[in-house]
Design a protein that fits this description.
Layout lengths: L11 H19 L3 H9 L10 H4 L7 H6 L13 E6 L9 E5 H17 L7 E4 L7 H13 L2 E3 L6 H11 L3 E3 L2 H13 L4 H4 L3 E5 L5 H11 L2 E8 L4 E7 L6 E3 L4 E6 L13 E7 L10 E7 L1 E2 L11 E2 L4 E2 L4 E3 L2 E3 L1 H8 L5 E12 L2 E10 L1 H4 L3 H19 L4 E6 L13 E3 L4
Helix pairs in contact: 5-6, 8-10, 11-13
Bound molecules: adenosine-5'-diphosphate and zinc ion.
Length: about 425
């Protein structure tokens, strides 16, 4: 059996016993963190008195605000001199938070990442290109370390410069690629423009993640790049990538339960929801030394997929992330997730990779405008055909989100494109 396989097939009882043991170690470590020492005392809980996972749930949640208040380094469980790396969250929402790692933390992270890659079929013989931003974004160094740990020849391409990305893929015979979904769609389109047959390119596997995307987008990426694409979930607070990852079944993401304890809760009540029901993901580090985090509210919405996975791994699976709790748009009293809109848009072959959702207010009336980029050949078509397409998209969106949006079909250049995570929603209602 492969070195990465042993922990992946532990039975439920063994996983829970391991979690309890690692939770005790973690509670021992966080006694050095003032915030957690106080909370443990208030809950009358300690490493020695922890008897069950249920005991652990007496502790309050850690929130993003707690981490912000601790910025830059007030939550360390070990002396600063033992830290070898710091990452900050990419700041998609609000002010930054900082996460510190010891040498061992970095090694554990690389092992987890390598386990993900191995799971989807990457091997040391693969040539791996990391086309995500480096720097403070964890998708750079995090994925990079995993690929090297696995033994792949690893190309730190970074994001952007699409022509060069293609050239690197060709020159070095790249077979594995990490790329965020919005950029993957762009790369696919660039291949088409350059007249390159994706199947002749030699890519086999793409790891896509870091931002929400629909099944339709995955299929487009697979066809456009000639790959199998696997969903990769993580967040800086829990290292970054390598937290939950799809296996070859492409049916939900296994959460590495030997390294993370997870809960899915009702965001209002804080109580656990039943398996299969959507709630907010809450996570605890089980192996981190430098900056352990207990019961962290990720704001990410998902559900546990009940039942065993056909691949035989025992670590439970979560569904793709529907969005962040903060992403939810409320329009005319209706809750809308941007992902619902994407899902509908991507069912239309005429619509390209890019779109934008604009929320506006006119007097007391709130409106939602969806600007979808379409190819030049579509825009050149007859006015009647364009109008018919616009109507069909409007009707499709109405069925999904229950309000009628204004749909605009625009040229690719009219929708801004980010090299990092895409910013799809523009809210002008407060202005
Ligand atoms: P930021 O919160 O500033 O974007 P991170 O880089 O830590 O900083 O991003 C983590 C967040 O990215 C997650 O909490 C989640 O909202 C999103 N994310 C990461 N991977 C995925 C994925 N596979 N699907 C959907 N969303 C994801
Ligand atoms: Zn599986």
């Amino acid at each position: 059996m492969d070195v990465f396989d042993a922990a992946e097939s532990l039975d439920r009882q063994a996983i829970e016993a391991l979690q309890l043991e690692r939770l005790r170690e973690t509670l021992g470590r966080v006694a050095a963190v003032p915030l957690y020492a106080e909370r443990l005392a208030a809950a009358n809980l300690s490493a020695a008195s922890l008897r069950s996972l249920a005991d652990f749930r007496r502790l309050p949640f850690t929130t993003k605000d707690d981490l912000r208040a601790a910025y830059p380094s007030r939550m360390l469980a070990r002396p600063m001199s033992e830290m070898v790396r710091v990452h900050t969250s990419s700041g998609t929402t609000g002010t930054a938070i900082a996460i510190f790692h010891t040498r061992n933390d970095i090694a554990v992270w690389a092992d987890l990442m390598a386990r993900c890659m191995h799971m989807v079929g990457l091997r040391s013989s693969d040539v791996f290109q990391n086309a995500s931003g480096y720097g403070l974004f964890t998708g750079g160094l995090g994925i990079h370390a995993g690929a090297e740990r696995l033994g792949c020849c690893t190309i730190p391409a970074g994001a952007g410069n699409t022509h060069r990305q293609i050239q690197l893929i060709r020159d070095f015979g790249v077979t594995g690629l990490h790329i965020i979904p919005s950029y993957a769609l762009y790369l696919a389109e660039a291949l088409e423009h350059e007249g390159i047959d994706p199947d002749a390119l030699g890519l086999r596997i793409a790891l896509i993640g870091a931002e929400p995307h629909s099944e339709e987008v995955r299929r487009r990426i697979e066809a456009g790049l000639g790959v199998k694409a696997y969903n990769s979930y993580g967040l800086s607070e829990m290292n970054g990538p390598g937290v939950a990852f799809e296996c070859v079944e492409q049916a939900g993401m296994h959460v590495w339960e030997d390294a993370f304890l997870f809960e899915v809760i009702d965001p209002e009540s804080g109580e656990p929801v039943a398996d299969g029901e959507i709630g907010e993901l809450v996570m605890t580090t089980l192996m981190r030394e430098g900056m352990p985090i207990l019961r962290y509210r990720t704001r990410d919405l998902t559900r546990i997929l009940p039942g065993p996975c056909a691949c035989g791994r025992t670590h439970r699976r979560i569904d793709r992330i529907t969005g962040r709790a903060d992403d939810m748009l409320i329009l005319k009293g209706v809750n809308i997730y941007p992902m619902q809109i994407e899902k509908v848009l991507m069912t239309f072959a005429e619509i390209g990779k890019n779109y934008q959702i604009v929320l506006e207010r006119e007097g007391v009336v709130e409106r939602i405008r969806v600007r979808a980029a379409v190819g030049a050949e579509v825009l050149k078509g007859s006015a009647g055909a364009l109008e018919a397409l616009r109507r069909k998209i409007t009707a499709g969106l109405h069925d999904e989100i229950l309000v009628t949006p204004t749909v605009e079909l625009v040229a690719e250049t009219e929708v801004p494109r980010a090299e990092g995570k895409a910013r799809r929603v523009v809210d002008l209602r407060g202005q």
